[in-house]
Design a protein that fits this description.
The chain has 330 residues and is an alpha+beta fold. The chain has 2 domains: 192 residues, 2-Layer Sandwich (Heat Shock Protein 90), CATH 3.30.565; 115 residues, 2-Layer Sandwich (Ribosomal Protein S5, domain 2). The chain has 10 helices and 16 strands. The strands form 3 sheets. Strands 1, 2, 3, 4, 5, 6, 7, 8 and 9 form a 9-stranded mixed β-sheet that branches. It is elongated, with a radius of gyration of 20 Å. The N and C termini lie far apart (60 Å). The structure holds adenosine-5'-diphosphate (ADP) and magnesium ion (MG).
Length: 330
């Protein structure tokens, strides 16, 4: 059974960045207002995600690590997914491919810790912690050397982790994020975005400033449009902020970071009159729609989506961006 778990685990966790994504999404699902991610050696030796969320009751810790035992979806409507987690296997997978330790405390209860190594579950032990949860994964893929070989350099893996954290931070401006690199034992903060307060556009602008840059945020064009029940909210950068690669395009569907061809294509098309070929606009765009009008399960990593009315969504994005650019004299 442990071997089967290890094989299946590769589908959920293929590299440190995917582990970080699952753990941060769990923290968000738990209602965290502050999430701290610590990485060593590109995540190969250490990934730690600490949150101030609701915690896991000590008696539930073994259950949280059991495959499919705790899925947040009840199966009644697979297309209507509101919380990030719904497969109930991230923790089980991480426990199968690394050395996993969870310390958690529910407010008003005692903290507990549990460890799993190569799928072998230890007993829950008393521990000390503020309310919230810390999940630590050491030596990811130590039990599956073949997967370890597929990882890229520490630097490239750390970059991918940073990208995942920035995208989730962009999606959740009211949550504080910190990313630290403690390679070699010395801690360096590589990203910080303090929790934003107040109304949505102000919060988004503040978060844009932390994630992309203060100057960019100060000059970004506000986007707010709606068509046939689909909403578009966010900021688009002036053409002068374009890049030579599509590295700073943050696109979300119902709050979920996606890397969707239709949306990225529409973003590019919105700028087609003002940007040369090979230049990519910088933007953070939030598409909102009825969860039943979009299928988020197209890709296992949930990065691609399929809209029921792709033409509506594309038209909305292209026209909203052209309108904003025209309003700014472009
Ligand atoms: P899923 O998120 O799909 O339910 P996971 O394996 O990611 O599956 O997590 C299993 C369960 O463990 C969750 O359903 C949740 O109950 C609990 N859990 C995991 N991480 C946290 C966290 N950071 N805070 C509170 N509960 C958590
Ligand atoms: Mg999860």
């Amino acid at each position: 059974e442990a071997a089967i778990n290890r094989i299946a685990a590769g589908e959920v966790v293929e590299r440190p960045a995917s582990a970080v994504k699952e753990l941060v999404e769990n923290a968000l699902d738990a209602g965290a207002t502050r999430i701290e991610v610590t990485i060593a050696d590109g995540g190969k030796t250490l990934i730690r995600v600490a949150d101030d969320g609701c915690g896991i009751p000590a008696t539930d810790l073994p259950l949280a690590l059991a495959r499919h035992a705790t899925s947040k979806i009840d199966g009644s409507d697979l297309l209507d997914i509101r919380s990030f987690g719904f497969r109930g296997e991230a923790l089980a997978s991480l426990g199968a491919v690394g050395r996993l330790c969870i310390v958690s405390r529910v407010r008003g209860q005692d903290a507990a810790r549990i460890e799993v190594d190569g799928g072998r579950l230890g007993a829950a032990q008393p521990a000390a912690r503020q309310p919230g949860t810390t999940v630590e994964v050491r030596d990811l893929f130590h039990a599956t050397p073949a997967r370890l070989k597929f990882l890229r350099s520490d630097r490239a893996e750390m970059q991918a982790v940073g990208d995942v954290v920035r995208r989730l931070a962009m999606a959740e401006p009211f949550v504080g994020f910190v990313l630290r690199d403690c390679t070699g034992g010395e801690e360096r903060e590589t990203f910080r975005a303090d929790a934003e307060q107040g109304e949505l556009f102000g919060a988004l602008a503040g978060r844009l400033s932390a994630v992309i840059g203060r100057d960019f945020a100060a000059n970004a064009l506000r986007i707010e449009a709606e068509r046939d029940g689909v909403t578009l909210t966010g900021y688009a950068g002036l053409p002068t902020y374009s890049r030579g690669a599509a590295v700073a395009q943050y696109v979300f569907v119902n709050g979920r970071p996606v890397r969707d061809k239709l949306l990225l294509g529409a973003l590019g098309a919105g700028y087609s009159d003002v940007l040369h070929r090979g230049r990519y606009p910088v933007a953070a765009l939030f598409v909102g729609c009825d969860p039943r009008a979009v299928d988020v399960n197209v890709h296992p990593a949930k990065a691609e989506v399929r809209f029921r009315e792709p033409g509506t969504v594309r038209g909305l994005v292209v026209s909203a961006i052209r309108h904003a650019l025209a309003g700014a004299g472009h």
